[in-house]
Amino acid sequence: MADAPRRIETRLAQAGRNPARSEGAVNPPVHRASTIILDQIEDLYGEAKRTYALDGMQVHEALKEALIAVEGGAGASLAPSGLAACTLALLACVREGGEALVTDSVYKPTRRFCDRMLKRLGVRTRYYDPRIGADIAAQITDETCVVFLESPGSLTFEIQDAPAIAAAARARGVPTIIDNTWSAGVYFKPFEHGVDLSVQALTKYQGGHSDLLVGAVLARSKDWQARVFGAAKELGLGVSPDDAYLALRGMRTLFARLAQASASALTLAQWLETRPEIARVIHPALASHPDHALWRRDFSGASGLFGFVLKPCAPEKLKAMLEGFSVMAMGFSWGGYESLIVPCDAQLIRTAGAWREAGPLLRLSVGLEHPDDLIADLAAGLERLA
User: Fold this and answer.
1) Of the N and C termini of the chain, which has fewer Cβ atoms inside 10 Å?
2) Could you give the CA distance from residue 166 to residue 315 in angstroms, rounded to a whole number?
3) Domain final residue pick, 246, 264, 290
4) Burial state string for 115-129 with b = 16 or more CB within 10 A and e = fewer than 16
5) Where does 41-171 show beta strands of DSSP type E?
6) Is 209 helix (H, G, I), strand (E, B) or coil?
7) Number of folded domains in the chain?
8) Minimal CA–CA distance to 247: which of 9, 385, 66?
């Protein structure tokens, strides 16, 4: 009789653990290595054995096993940052003279890479409305070599109809990539919805402690895994064994931290909806979110990152609000144990459609502090705003 599928908490605790390769230790060894000594001349240029540490050591393999155990897929490749994972996935798909279709809500550094580096390489980028759904079929041409999704958008939190977009792309033989960092691979399963490559910024929830930079690209098939791994090897991308260890250690507590951040964030979002200073709260788990039905259909939960729009206010009032917090702090990352808030208007770039909110857009990453303390901090900030 087959064993019942293990639940996510159990998989996170056990994935990547192999006492046989770590002399019985519960955690994998950390090899700080470059050179690997080989006994046989045939092994120097063969494929059976690892010949250089850039390809990863035991701790890297353990991390990749854990990522696959959570999100699924046929393989994983590591990159030195979340942005590097995005660019690696894109470079594995594009070709000179081709074009990339990219969601208009994409992470600004990914957009910068498309507009600058891909352009220099002879690849055109067109941006599409993140709510386009199956209508993306009309945007796909013979030159289209990839469709890049991000769901939800990390500033404006649109939920994309990933199954419809993936099906339209697959019908034309075009691969799809999704930046799935918001869900940490826990709350959304890209490969179950037909996506080919999933990007994760492990810097965020997997690391969880704001002390490392690392990313990953997971592949739906062995063929795509080989293609991404080959691109990483050609680019010379490597990940520090210490950072791989920290990401794996963070994954052991990922579900508990994510669940707490999720619950606290929803509490704060619901409280913000009651405040007269707020024009709109943008949290996919709220019934007021325009894509709430899609989120309910495709996601099993929400992370601790969401946005809200203030009613129009003077810049000096916004400055006083943001610079006076005592629990939260301003910072660009998210997914760590600490709560962060940033104004986002300076980051907003839209070409497929305009951003039409009149007031400032703020993004809040909810950490592990007590929600009552965060609410008190926000309430004091809104008083400074008023």
Assistant:
1) N
2) 42
3) 246
4) eeebeeeebebbbbb
5) 75-79, 99-103, 124-128, 144-150
6) coil
7) 2
8) 66
| Structural domain for 180, as ranges | 71-246
The C-alpha atoms of residue 59 and residue 199 are separated, in whole angstroms, by: 20
The contacts of residue 59 (CB under 8 Å, 6+ apart) are 28, 29, 30, 31, 241, 244, 245, 248
Phi and psi (nearest 5°) for 147? Answer: -120, 125
pLDDT in tens, 191-225: 999 999 999 999 999 999 999 999 999 999 999 99
CATH code assigned at 232: 3.40.640.10
- In this structure, is residue 240 part of a structural domain? yes
Say yes or no to pLDDT of 359 above 80: yes
CA distance 267 to 245: 33
Task: Report whether the peptide linkage leading into residue 175 is cis, meaning its omega lies within 30 degrees of zero.
Answer: no
Structure confidence at residue 2 (pLDDT): 54
Residue 185 has pLDDT above 50, yes or no: yes
Q: What CATH number did the domain enclosing 331 receive?
A: 3.90.1150.10
Residue 22 lies in a domain: no
| 206 shares its domain with 334 | no
- Cβ atoms of residues 157 and 306 within 8 Å: yes
pLDDT given at position 57: 85
Structure tokens at 382: 């809104």
Q: Classify residue 320: in a domain, yes or no.
A: yes
pLDDT tops 80 at residue 26: yes
* Residues 268, 216 share a domain: no
pTM: predicted TM-score of the whole model, two decimal places: 0.94
For residue 381, tell me if it sits in a domain: yes
1 has pLDDT over 50: no
- 3 state SS of 310: strand
pLDDT digits (tens, 9 = 90+) for 45-78: 877 778 787 888 899 999 999 999 999 999 999 9
Report residue 164: phi and psi, to 5°. -70, -40
Closest CA to 90 of 175, 25, 207: 175
State which H helix or E strand residue 309 sits in.
strand 305-310
